[in-house]
Amino acid sequence: MTPHIGAAPGSIAETVLMPGDPLRAEWAAKTFLDDPVCVNSVRGMSGFTGTWKGNRVTIHGSGMGMPSLSIYANELIREYGAKTLIRIGSCGAMQENVGLRDVILAMTASSLSTPSTGIFRELNFAPCADYGLLAAGVESAKRIGTPCHVGGIYSADVFYDERPDLNEIMTRHGILGVEMEAAELYNLAARHGVRALAVLTVSDHLLRHEALPAEDRQSSFGDMVQIALEAAFA
Ligand SMILES: O=P(O)(O)O[C@H]1O[C@H](CO)[C@@H](O)[C@H]1O
Ligand SMILES: O=c1cc[nH]c(=O)[nH]1
Question: What ipTM score was computed for the predicted complex, to two decimals?
Answer without folding.
Answer: 0.98
